Amino acid sequence: MDGADGAESTRPVTHGAGRGTGPDRRGPVVAALMLAMALAALDATIVSTAVPQIVGDLGGFSLFSWLFSGYLLAVTVTLPVYGKLSDTFGRKPVLVAGAALFLLGSLLCALAWNMGALIAFRVLQGLGGGALQGTVQTLAADLYPLQERPKIQARLSTVWAVSAVTGPGIGGLLVAYADWRWIFLVNLPVGALALWLIVRHLHEPARERRTARARVDWAGALAVFACGGVLLAALVQGGVAWPWLSAPSLALFGAGLALLAAVVVIERRAVEPIIPGWVWRRRTIAAVNLALGALGVLMVAPAVFLPTYAQSVLGLAPVAAGFVLSVWTLSWPVSAALSQHVYRRIGFRNTAVLGIGAAALLLFAFPFLPYPGEAWQPALLMLLLGAALGLFQLPLIVGVQSTVGWSERGTATASILFCRQTGQTLGAAAFGAIANGVLAARLSGTGADLGNGEHGNGAHSTGEFVEAGAGEHGAGALDSVTRALDSGAAHEPVRRAIADAVHAVYWGAAGAAALAFLVLLVVAPRRFPVLKD
To answer: What is the pTM of this model?
Structure first.
């Protein structure tokens, strides 16, 4: 189970490594996986650029945040369902069905006649997006033995990095020179090519015949979908559409907890549960689930709050502020690709501990940057943070996928992606509340002009400091205050308040990183039980 140097063995894993798709056929399949991943990766960044035009055309400004949160909810709650289905029926049918559903949703989004219809079709898109994200990651592990998996994972990470950088530009060009509907129509040729490559080149061998017909836990799938949807909706809209302690918020949380109890009962009785108990009984998978959930939480701090910090506190233009954030998408895939040289020597857990420990220190250092400081200072921290997180995430994903056989890999992969997505939603809600609280405390009674005619009412003026459901888990963060700064109507106390609020968020992110560090040390085994020939 372990190499002579104490690290996990990196021999080829026979369970699904290239099952039915030989090395000569892997190139077209990998291209299809990268195209499919690009569809999901581009979605949020490209759509966010067109929000003003969409609202101007369809109306429904009060509902537009659901263009993002509706999609997010659908993706998150379907991940475990698709993971189990791919283990039961194979990866290819699930990926083909998911891609077709995503493309149908894209076409209908382009044809939407009002905001309600567009939101409904975005949810349909998300139902397909869940299959894209989970199944692509699972197939990546199926196609390559352990020592070669960093290659495909690095390519997929590069897709996310390129999408993060190019998505806003592509969306802006389409909106400026065509129409907002084209941001959905461009998915069709890309998705069609990915589908053709998958159908033509991905060949899975026939599954071993079972003594009884495969039974799908549809009751469990429905319960998981309902429970996840209700709880995530409560987190996304709490503190935004209504106060946290209001009747709608309490009702949603109460219904979510009741549905959670129903999920436990249904899954314990199911022959083939959607979320099997072994996902949490095995130390390795449970520890990685918790650690990547913490990763989802901490990612919210830079992704949501840093761009506005760069504009509001550092005084950068939007393009320059975007660059400060985007540098971590450059170092992340490079670090992920090189991580194999580290975990082959010291093991998966120790490599991840090294990465998240460095990430915790970098997040902890952010509040100590000089005020207002220079742009290169947070940019350098982000560059290093991307490198640290690449060293943290990829070894955990590859490690978990290498501890299970083909028939469990889809479920295991979906569970860790589900936890990371859920962590992002939790982080958006928690950090939004923290930022609002700090802003209200700093601005209350200062008489600072926030640009809307309100003086000395910091709590009211900053009530929409974060819209936890908008954009990338709150891409509308700080909008109300930023507009005041852009208009030149804000005073120095406002800038100070924003800096303090973002610093508080980074303290929380550092705490999430520290929690992941402790989980890996205490819960995760020192050596992952990697399957070998």
So the answer is: 0.79
